[in-house]
Amino acid sequence: MGESMFQGNVHKYGANIDTDQIIPARYLISTDESFLAAHAMEGSTDTEFLNRVQPGDIVVADTNFGCGSSREHAPIALKGAGISCIVAKSFARIFFRNSINRGIPVLECPEAVDATDAGDKLQVDLVAGTITNLTKEQTFQAKPLDQFMLDIIDAGGVVEYTKARLQSQGA
User: Fold this and answer.
1) Please, are residues 68 and 20 in contact by the beta-carbon 8 Å criterion?
2) Could you please report the per-residue DSSP string of 72-100?
3) Residue 37 CA to chain centroid, in angstroms?
4) Quick one: residue 97, left, alpha or beta (phi over 0 = left, psi -120 to 50 = alpha)?
5) Cα atoms found within 13 Å of the Cα of residue 53, Cβ hemisphere only
């Protein structure tokens, strides 16, 4: 089972970070999480991402994060690199859903984005819908996720959620 509380250091990005920046198309030959993770954010200007990222870290971004293609490779790459949660002012709709389907929490909270800098430490409580900047001692209320989405995240993704549901129904 997943968890509802996340804490990590911030990797901050601007607006319109597309799926090619998150994982360049030349790596779409695989859906292997560790293979994709080794190339996460390689298409962006953040050349030090893989040297800085630690398990549990959090991506914070401006508007339209994950725009571009509908491929699931982008959230797989971020999850594999250790990203526990993504907070943005807004997400591309398909990226938002692909992230939930892969068990990655995504929260919209413009105020938290504006008040957060790269390197800050955040704590995210999915159940309460709060984002606390531990570095600056500020707390923000995110747009809440539906219980169904929280259940999918808690299960580790839609495949695991479906398996658990089928198993509980004796299928």
Assistant:
1) yes
2) THHHHHHHHTT--EEEES-B-HHHHHHHH
3) 13
4) alpha
5) 27
**pLDDT on residue 1:** 43
Residues 6+ apart with CB under 8 A from 164: 155
Q: What is the pTM of this model?
A: 0.94
pLDDT tens string 6-50: 999 999 999 999 999 999 999 999 989 999 999 999 999 998 999
Q: Which amino acid is at 38?
A: A
Residues 6+ apart with CB under 8 A from 79: 33, 37, 102, 103, 104
List pLDDT tens digits, range 75-114.
999 999 999 999 999 999 999 999 999 999 999 999 999 9
CB 20 within 8 A of CB 69: yes
SS3 label, residue 66:
coil
Do 23 and 43 meet the contact criterion of CB atoms below 8 Å apart?
yes
